[in-house]
């Protein structure tokens, strides 16, 4: 995988936004897989800035969700559908019809998972999937020891993940759902380009295990090593545990500018 070390989160967001813009130039109806949380916000802000400046045509672009809480009422502000609409779809000026996501309020949750996997395939697959990483190495909500061949399914959140996400629920861990729908690792690996963004010292151990450790279910993000086009972008703080950091810096510095991510 390609590893890019940037000075800060804003620089990472700008690089990824440029990659998305280039993709949309080549393929105007590209399907962008988006992640939630605070880490990817600089990406969406940088892309929206390009759209407002007239540098990117998103009139045919599509976006899809990586995961969703189970059991939150429709329209709940912290449902990931609401978050994506608020942070991605609306700032980019996309229509709601350009958005795809699983139904976390469905009576038959497994049927909703299967339907979402089928919908992604019918849409032609994800062209670029943006990922974050948990402090325990999870991607999406594929917690440690998830199958590397898993499909979209319901998962039970670990206590650590609920603690990490409590900040979005006013600090109240009891308000954080126990279950989620998530694209499985096997589903994620079907995207044509995977881009993982990690910032902050708290992600350093997980980043090192993902990039330099063995491929292992205990570190779900390590499955990116199996992908033919995976890019990991980290700020200096998240890169502190990488033994090969000097090599990664030199490699990216020597990369031809026209090559892109």
TrEMBL record:
<feature type="site" description="Part of the allosteric site">
    <location>
        <position position="155"/>
    </location>
</feature>
<comment type="pathway">
    <text>Amino-sugar metabolism; N-acetylneuraminate degradation; D-fructose 6-phosphate from N-acetylneuraminate: step 5/5.</text>
</comment>
<dbReference type="GO" id="GO:0006043">
    <property type="term" value="P:glucosamine catabolic process"/>
</dbReference>
<dbReference type="GO" id="GO:0019262">
    <property type="term" value="P:N-acetylneuraminate catabolic process"/>
</dbReference>
<dbReference type="GO" id="GO:0042802">
    <property type="term" value="F:identical protein binding"/>
</dbReference>
<dbReference type="GO" id="GO:0004342">
    <property type="term" value="F:glucosamine-6-phosphate deaminase activity"/>
</dbReference>
<comment type="function">
    <text>Catalyzes the reversible isomerization-deamination of glucosamine 6-phosphate (GlcN6P) to form fructose 6-phosphate (Fru6P) and ammonium ion.</text>
</comment>
<keyword id="KW-0119">Carbohydrate metabolism</keyword>
<dbReference type="InterPro" id="IPR006148">
    <property type="entry name" value="Glc/Gal-6P_isomerase"/>
</dbReference>
<comment type="similarity">
    <text>Belongs to the glucosamine/galactosamine-6-phosphate isomerase family. NagB subfamily.</text>
</comment>
<feature type="site" description="Part of the allosteric site">
    <location>
        <position position="156"/>
    </location>
</feature>
<feature type="active site" description="For ring-opening step">
    <location>
        <position position="136"/>
    </location>
</feature>
<protein>
    <recommendedName>
        <fullName>Glucosamine-6-phosphate deaminase</fullName>
        <ecNumber>3.5.99.6</ecNumber>
    </recommendedName>
</protein>
<dbReference type="InterPro" id="IPR004547">
    <property type="entry name" value="Glucosamine6P_isomerase"/>
</dbReference>
<feature type="domain" description="Glucosamine/galactosamine-6-phosphate isomerase">
    <location>
        <begin position="11"/>
        <end position="225"/>
    </location>
</feature>
<feature type="active site" description="Proton acceptor; for enolization step">
    <location>
        <position position="67"/>
    </location>
</feature>
<keyword id="KW-0021">Allosteric enzyme</keyword>
<dbReference type="Pfam" id="PF01182">
    <property type="entry name" value="Glucosamine_iso"/>
</dbReference>
<keyword id="KW-0378">Hydrolase</keyword>
<feature type="active site" description="Proton acceptor; for ring-opening step">
    <location>
        <position position="138"/>
    </location>
</feature>
<dbReference type="InterPro" id="IPR018321">
    <property type="entry name" value="Glucosamine6P_isomerase_CS"/>
</dbReference>
<dbReference type="GO" id="GO:0006046">
    <property type="term" value="P:N-acetylglucosamine catabolic process"/>
</dbReference>
<dbReference type="GO" id="GO:0005975">
    <property type="term" value="P:carbohydrate metabolic process"/>
</dbReference>
<feature type="site" description="Part of the allosteric site">
    <location>
        <position position="153"/>
    </location>
</feature>
<feature type="active site" description="For ring-opening step">
    <location>
        <position position="143"/>
    </location>
</feature>
<feature type="site" description="Part of the allosteric site">
    <location>
        <position position="146"/>
    </location>
</feature>
<dbReference type="InterPro" id="IPR037171">
    <property type="entry name" value="NagB/RpiA_transferase-like"/>
</dbReference>
<dbReference type="GO" id="GO:0005737">
    <property type="term" value="C:cytoplasm"/>
</dbReference>
């Amino acid at each position: 995988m390609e590893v890019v070390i940037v000075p800060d989160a804003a620089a990472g967001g700008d690089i990824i936004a440029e990659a998305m813009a280039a993709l949309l130039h080549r393929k105007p109806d590209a399907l962008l897989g988006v992640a939630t949380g605070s880490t990817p916000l600089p990406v969406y802000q940088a892309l929206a800035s390009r759209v407002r400046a007239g540098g990117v045509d998103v009139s045919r672009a599509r976006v899809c969700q990586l995961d969703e809480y189970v059991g939150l009422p429709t329209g709940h502000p912290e449902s990931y559908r609401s978050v994506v609409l608020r942070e991605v779809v609306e700032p980019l000026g996309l229509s709601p019809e350009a958005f795809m996501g699983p139904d976390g309020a469905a009576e038959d949750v497994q049927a909703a998972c299967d339907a979402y996997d089928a919908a992604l395939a019918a849409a032609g697959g994800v062209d670029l999937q943006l990922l974050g990483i948990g402090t325990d190495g999870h991607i999406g909500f594929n917690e440690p020891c998830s199958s590397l061949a898993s499909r979209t399914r319901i998962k039970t959140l670990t206590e650590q993940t609920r603690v990490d996400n409590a900040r979005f629920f006013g600090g109240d861990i009891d308000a954080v759902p126990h279950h989620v729908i998530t694209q499985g690792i096997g589903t994620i690996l079907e995207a044509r380009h995977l881009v993982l963004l990690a910032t902050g010292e708290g992600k350093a151990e997980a980043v090192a295990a993902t990039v330099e450790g063995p491929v292992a279910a205990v570190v779900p993000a390590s499955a990116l090593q199996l992908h033919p086009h995976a890019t990991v972008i980290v700020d200096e703080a998240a890169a502190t545990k990488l033994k090969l950091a000097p090599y990664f810096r030199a490699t990216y510095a020597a990369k031809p500018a026209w090559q892109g991510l």
